[in-house]
Amino acid sequence: MRGGAVCILVGLALALSGCSAAQQTPTLVPPTAALIPSTETPTPTPIPPTNTPQALTAPEQFGVSPTPLTPQETLVDSLIAVDPIAAELVGVAQRALAEQLNLATRRIRLVEVQPVVWDDASLGCPSPNVAYTQVEINGYRIVLRAADQDYFYHTDFDRVFLCAAENEQLPDDFTPLAEETSEATPES
User: Fold this and answer.
1) pTM of the model
2) For residues 86 and 61, which has the higher predicted lDDT (pLDDT)?
3) Angle separating helix axes 71-82 and 84-101, nearest 10 degrees
């Protein structure tokens, strides 16, 4: 029995060594380049620029002149360009009004946005018979227009809400943007 067990163990060891030797012998696979024949790919030629048959016409040639920005539009655009908080609050007000009126946001036009220091927590739009904390709060007054109707929004940096024109109370030192007058507009 002992001799038979030794023979089995020796045979098993030889079989295992033969398997490991077979695993160590790498199988040579031809490289991919040899399997896929190369083909010549034509390079596209650059497209030459097209010649414009005539010079493009300016709007003035059709009797249309560009409309210059009013001083008020210039002030509003410049504030939005340099004050990202004002720009974001205007966007919030426009989306709120568009939703309230069931209009597309592009139908809501910004008329005016001005920084304001509100006198109390009502942000210049007090409700009757409500006492408000007297504290100066930085914010904005936003005027939006939809279908020839103006809407007034008052904000701080956390709230944006619609204020009815009859409830609006602006601080004493508030100066509205210059209104267009016949003296301020260029003559035709």
Assistant:
1) 0.56
2) 86
3) 110
